[in-house]
Amino acid sequence: LALAPVTAPASTVDGFVREFLQNLNFNRGVALSTSSATDRYFALAYTVRDYLMARWLEDLRRQREVQAKGVAYLSAEYLLGRQLDNNLLASGLTDIASEALASCGIDLDDLRQQEVEPGLGNGGLGRLAACFIDSLATLGVPNTGYGIRYEYGIFRQTFEDGQQVEQPDSWLAYGSPWEFPHPEAAQTISFGGHTETYDDGGVQRSRWVPGWNVQAVPYNYMVPGYQNGRVNTLRLWSAKATNSFDLRVFNSGDYEEAVRAQTFAENISKVLYPEDSTPQGKELRLQQQYFFVAASIKDFLDVTLPKDFDLTKLPDRIIFQLNDTHPVIAVPELMRVLVDEKKMEWEDAWAITQKCFAYTCHTLLPEALEVWSVDLLGHLLPRHLEIIYRINDDFLDAVRERFGDDEMRIRDMSIIGEHPVRSVRMAYLATVAGAKVNGVAELHSQLLREKVLPDFDEFFPGKFTNVTNGVTPRRFVRLANPELSALITDALGSGWVTDLERLRELETHAEDPEFRARFAEVKAANKRRLSAVLRERDGFEVSDGHMLDVMVKRLHEYKRQMLKILHVVTQYESVISGRVVAADLQPRTAIFGAKAAPGYAMAKNIIHLINAVGSVVNADTRLEGRLKVLFPPNYNVTLAERVIPAADLSEQISLAGKEASGTGNMKFALNGALTIGTDDGANVEIRELVGDENFFLFGMSEPEVEALWARGYKPAEFYQADDNLRRALDLIASGAFSRGDRSTFEPIVSNLLYDDRFMVLADYSSYIAEQVKVDAAYADQDAWNRSAILNVARTGFFSSDRSMRDYIDRIWHTPPSF
Ligand SMILES: CCc1ccc([C@H](C)CC(=O)N[C@@H]2O[C@H](CO)[C@@H](O)[C@H](O)[C@H]2O)cc1
């Protein structure tokens, strides 16, 4: 019996009830009658786990047996969202669970609300990682996602007097029913100390003599494929002190000292860094990066691989995908293990390492590219710095080989930068070591090659490629928009959930007035649902008959939330000045969602401005309720799942050349919203696929931006030349939204007039003109709905399943196995 494969409980209502009550009574230790909602939620989660367990264990057994090449996805962030519904969908148990619980007098929806979403990421990069591991499991590709189990995720955002206030995100207060801790499989991770060379039987070798170490405890999470019997693993590491308690010191009465090691160690996985563009260069951040990378490499080499595995075959067994530069310390770590511990020759180790890594870059902002000072690196990871120096020396020798003694080029390509302080340029290390380097949208990958890393593109022909981002249709269409899903399935059958290009077949239905009417009803129903959510969550009222104009993403100047708020102020000013009659306005509600990095003052001021404009506009009866601004706090995955299906207009208005890709843009189009956007990131590919007539394009293209910059950009000239713009900025400067206090938003106005790095003023008139077209288009609801349906039909390309297939074809060569 012991060796028999684990069998899942019976997928029947009775079977589910039995399993649920079993978990409630014996796992939570309560009776149904005395149970709390939390008890019932945990018991439900345990029950769903039980149904997926057999698949998970069988998958692990098969992977051990087949030893197929797999993907180790290294990411410092995973923005997972709530797990319950996704796991119910993946196991095909949603209806059975709902019926089983109802038979116990429990409403499944009540339990859904109990779940706290794990906010282990900042934004795009973290959510993309979550979509990718979902797709790898659904495609049946062996994959382990590796990351950090932060005790505190992205902060909770509240507003006090319209200003962002950060609250700690204690998502583990009640524990998480979806994690499987394995303290017995903890890895020891070292830091500090020094290096030394020693004679190893006549061979001079180097070794690291660490100063201190911590324990990395793995927590496993299920990553179920969509109804394919597959379950991959997400392994997140948590830091613990090696010797958590020093009894000797304790008995000496110095209680604090006795536990200092514990707190010190735990700090490593305590909290997620809330920056999503400007690295702070903090030592703890580097500790976090090395901590999870070293634990993951040890875990794979010592646990997953068979004991006698021939490491020269490592590239046939695994590819480590670097999710931006955050895990790139993995390169010198693998070299250290192969050379220092496995005693491999440097050249052999390097040949293996170069085939085992690939690097995805997610940004174009120079300030977002991580650099670590050699002082800090040498202090924390002295052996790794030595290895990086050796990698760089060999690399620059090859550069000299190819280009001769071109010192400029040598200095420009060196992994070691000299200014402002001697530092390691992590993007350069990732590019030199990676087998492949990819951007996340066509335009981004092109700019990466031409502008950010041109020397490397020339030196490494064929290394640079592109894989346009994608989103999982399971969470962002099937789960977030059940009514649209039913409409699509009704028309096309259910195959689209795992074959999203099938949506193309909706094109013919777009010409069917009856189908358009049903689509309109779906959108209206999603708006009603959003309205109920925002009323209950934030006390907001969503006005009927309003176009929902939505901008949800991190607050960053390059994303230009300022352009959106200037549009609102322009409309407001036009009415209160009497130039426009309120009744002529197309009723519109601008919905914002955005967190700002706590240290990003300008971003926080812009949040304050949006809330300030909102409270004045919403209260001004002269607008007759035809223009509203809503800014629900704490935008996260769960709120995205409610807002996106209800949206009419998707705001993707970054300055061309700044947004690497965007993924919200894809989610909106797939849920039948029309996009107003610049030719930036993946907007370009969305517009190409949906057709110019189904996309509201405005603003400068990337080359036009470059040209204006080169000519010398004087934002004040645009202020002078455009009456609407001047009136809008003057109204803000006047204190109209800050109780007459002109100083409150002065920093924003003067920045726009005298700096405006992201050319808000230059693109203003084109944006406003395009918004007028949006209003006109929205007046013809039937034509709008036809265009919206064509957006759904033509954006199947943006499935993360397709992204994964591209990574497999162009980078990983890890076909789905067994
Ligand atoms: C070290 C500070 C830091 C932290 C996170 C990041 C991320 C790379 C920022 C990020 O999330 N980038 C977004 O990645 C998405 C997924 O590829 C893209 O769609 C977005 O365009 C890009 O801004 C940069 C710098």
UniProtKB/TrEMBL annotation:
InterPro entries: Glycg_phsphrylas, Glyco_trans_35, Pyridoxal_P_attach_site. Belongs to the glycogen phosphorylase family. Pfam families: Phosphorylase (PF00343). Keywords: Carbohydrate metabolism, Glycosyltransferase, Pyridoxal phosphate, Transferase. Allosteric enzyme that catalyzes the rate-limiting step in glycogen catabolism, the phosphorolytic cleavage of glycogen to produce glucose-1-phosphate, and plays a central role in maintaining cellular and organismal glucose homeostasis. NCBIfam families: P_ylase. It is an enzyme of class 2 (transferase). It catalyses: [(1->4)-alpha-D-glucosyl](n) + phosphate = [(1->4)-alpha-D-glucosyl](n-1) + alpha-D-glucose 1-phosphate. Its cofactor is pyridoxal 5'-phosphate. Its EC number is 2.4.1.1. PANTHER family: GLYCOGEN PHOSPHORYLASE, MALTODEXTRIN PHOSPHORYLASE. This is Alpha-1,4 glucan phosphorylase. The keyword Glycosyltransferase applies. It comes from Microbacterium lacus.
